[in-house]
UniProtKB/TrEMBL annotation:
GO terms for molecular function: metal ion transmembrane transporter activity. Residues 96-121 are annotated as: Disordered. This is Zinc transporter ZIP2 isoform X2. The chain crosses the membrane at residues 12-32, 44-64. The gene is SLC39A2. It is a multi-pass membrane protein. The keyword rRNA-binding does not apply. It comes from Delphinapterus leucas. GO terms for cellular component: membrane. Keywords: Membrane, Transmembrane, Transmembrane helix. It is found in: Membrane.
Length: 121
């Protein structure tokens, strides 16, 4: 057995024992069996803490697996975005050009006057 595998098995076993001890802890004390008022709040706080620990461990586990293949996905995204930027710029230039032409036709934009028009005024 490799040393790393032995450490993993040892941690797994110790985590199991610790979970069982902490889970059975309330059964051993009468204080927890007659929970009223303040005792109920303490039990609620302990329950919320354990739920938070379980959620945290679960998310950390999923995060580690998600980060394994994220580098290739980022590279794919960068290639897609860079090809789309050129298309977007082309569409934007065409739209601005059509807007300018449309406004010139309607007379909303004044065309620059020639020198003859300026002198005739």
């Amino acid at each position: 057995m490799e040393p790393l595998l032995g450490v993993k098995v040892g941690c797994l076993f110790s985590l199991l024992v610790l979970t069982l001890v902490c889970g059975l802890f309330p059964i051993c004390f009468k204080w927890f069996q007659t929970a009223t008022g303040r005792h109920r709040r303490v039990l609620s706080l302990l329950s919320c803490t354990s739920a938070g620990i379980f959620l945290g461990v679960g998310f950390m586990h999923m995060t580690a697996e998600a980060l394994e293949g994220i580098e290739s996905e980022i590279q794919k995204l960068v290639i897609q975005v860079s090809s789309r930027v050129a298309e977007l710029q082309g569409c934007e230039a065409r739209m601005m050009n059509r807007t300018r032409e449309s406004n010139e036709e309607r007379g909303k934009i004044m065309k620059p006057r020639t020198q003859e028009e300026q002198q005739g005024r």
